Amino acid sequence: MPKQKETPTKGVKDEKFISVEDALKQKTGKVALRGWIYRIRKQKDKIFIILRDSSEIIQCIFSQEKFQKEWKDIDKLLNESSLEVFGVIKEDQRAPTGYEVTAERIEIIHYADNFPINKDQSPEFLLDVRHLWLRSRRITAILKIRSTVFGAIHEYFRSKEFYEFHSPIITAGAAESGPTKFLVDYFGEKAYLTQTWQFYAEAAIYALEKIYTIAPSFRAERSKTSRHLTEYWHAEVEAAWYDLDALMELAEGLIKQVLKRVLEKNQKELKILERDPAKLEVSLKKKFPRITYDEALKFLKEKKGHAIKWGKDLRTIEEEKLMELFDTPVFVTHYPKEIMAFYKPRDRKNPKTAVCFDCLMPDAHGELIGGSVRDTDIEELKKSLKSFGEKIEDYEFYFDINKYGAVPHAGFGMGVERFVKWICSLDNIKDAIAFPRTINRYKP
After folding, report:
1. What per-residue confidence (pLDDT) applies to 389?
2. Does a structural domain hold residue 230?
3. Would you say 51 and 80 are in contact if contact means Cβ atoms under 8 Å apart?
4. Is there a single domain that holds both residue 235 and residue 372?
5. Which of 131, 168, 177, 363 could bond 388 through an S-S bridge, CB–CB 3.0 to 4.6 Å?
6. Are 88 and 196 contained in the same domain?
7. 219 and 101 in a common domain
8. 291-301 as b/e, with b when 16 or more CB fall inside 10 Å?
9. Which domain holds residue 50?
């Protein structure tokens, strides 16, 4: 057995390696490729290797006649062994990607052990070996789309002249009412992992006016649903002088910008995931409907036979039934004030409701974005906090923000993994992030 190379950069001199994707575009002639064995099939006098790199897969054929000296070494190769392959590419419709390489030379970089992932593995096992399952074509495709999503979010907000603003991950208290906080021992003091940047962002708009971020958020919710993570990436925005209509326009534009970029850059990945691009294109072409909470209850009762008492929040089942009536995202506005976060102000026209929205997604993917105008009335804020049983003294710095030149402002938060889940039509949000964190999982 030849000595394995210490690193794949020690290839044959004067060879120019190209990606598998570029080789497929080249179609004919000599190629030099490097990557990992995705699949291997051995015959008496031929070995078929499906080579993968980050761009694509391609079939490489090794004949015993041509590789007599190396045949025993090639025959010992297993899935995920790393190689450099030199040969001639030609079209062959029987091959997985329509082309194959007749190998002329091979450099074995590393002999892999028996790869633990085979067909028909359970979802929990695949999460246990997530560090290896990332290599699958499915997860790789999702991660490429995820990268496009992040890039498009940055692109959109910067094109709107928003500043990127960063807030602390370790905070002194909550932003959302309730006990869903992760406790941190901060040198003997109690601190918490952030749930949202909102309070810090509201302070910052008095300096920068229009700001956004994409950062981790943490919710210690004991939820085991297919759309909850305890650690997720949060795209958030806060803007001075914005009202609810302007905020919804901004949110709709964001969704459409991201979809546009994914459809431009990730057709191959959508095909791997068997996601019909036409399902996404609909949301580019149509204006997103805007309905009130009251109208949502009416639709549910009259069109779905599902009656909801006024004042109840929409649960997953109600959101899914409502969205069966639509093929694009929908903004539901003016939820009951009493079930909303303390910082969402009462609507002056209807004080029983708050000036807020949820953006719900079609195909049973639930809420994507939650947003609102922010209340600047300190006494109203205190009143709301007391109704939730919160300690007023914990929010003194937040009240301080509104003592000096308070202006109308608004903001929203979007769970990026939920967006990826919908774009890719995933059954579970766990596949929308490389290493998911849930109530029962914090490793690998």
Report:
1. 84
2. yes
3. no
4. yes
5. 177
6. no
7. no
8. bbbbebbebbe
9. 20-110
Provide the pLDDT for residue 180.
82
Q: Is residue 440 domain-resident?
A: no
Q: Are residues 310 and 401 in the same domain?
A: yes
CA distances from residue 434 to 132, 187, 408 in whole angstroms, order as listed: 11, 31, 38
Q: CA-to-CA distance for 281 and 293, rounded, in angstroms?
A: 27
Question: Rounded CA gap, 399 and 377, in Å?
Answer: 9
Place of tokens 């995820």: 146
Quick one: tokens of 55? 């761009």
Q: How far apart are CA 440 and CA 444, in angstroms?
A: 12
Amino acid of residue 99: Y
Q: Which two tokens stand for residue 144?
A: 């490429």
Residue 137 tokens, joined: 């074509």
Q: Which residues sit opposite 212 in a β-bridge?
A: 164, 237
- Using a 10 angstrom Cβ sphere, with 0-12 exposed, 13-18 middle and 19 or more buried, the burial of residue 50 is buried
Number of domains in the chain: 2
Q: How far is CA 264 from the centre of its chain?
A: 18
Q: Which residues contact 72 (CB under 8 A, 6 or more apart)?
A: 1
Name the strands in the sheet holding 189-193, side by side, starting at the edge strand that comes first in the sequence.
170-171, 189-193, 183-186
State the Cα–Cα distance between residues 263 and 76, nearest whole angstrom: 41
CA contacts within 13 A on the Cβ side of 146: 22
Residue 252 counted as domain residue: no
Interhelix angle 293-304/316-323, nearest 10 degrees: 70
pTM of full prediction above 0.70: yes
User: Which residues have CB under 8 Å from 430's CB, separation 6+?
Assistant: 127, 229, 436, 438
Q: What is the DSSP string of 76-112?
A: T--TT-EEEEEEEEEE-TTSTTSEEEEEEEEEEEE--
Do residue 85 and residue 218 come from a single domain?
no
Written as one string, the DSSP assignment of 261-276 is HHHHH-HHHHHHTT--
Q: Does one domain contain both 305 and 342?
A: yes
Long-range contacts, stretch 336-339, CB < 8 angstroms, 24+ apart: 336/293, 336/310, 336/311, 338/311, 338/387, 339/311, 339/312, 339/313
38 secondary structure, DSSP code: E
Do the domain assignments include residue 228? yes
34: enclosing H helix or E strand: strand 29-42
| Whether residue 12 has pLDDT greater than 50 | no
199-208, 223-232, 265-274: range with lowest mean pLDDT:
223-232
Residue 360, domain CATH: 3.30.930.10
Give the model confidence (pLDDT) of 301-350 as tens digits: 999 999 999 999 999 999 999 999 999 999 999 999 999 999 999 999 99
Mean pLDDT of 240-244: 98
CATH number of the domain at 67, please.
2.40.50.140
Residues 137 and 102 in one domain: no
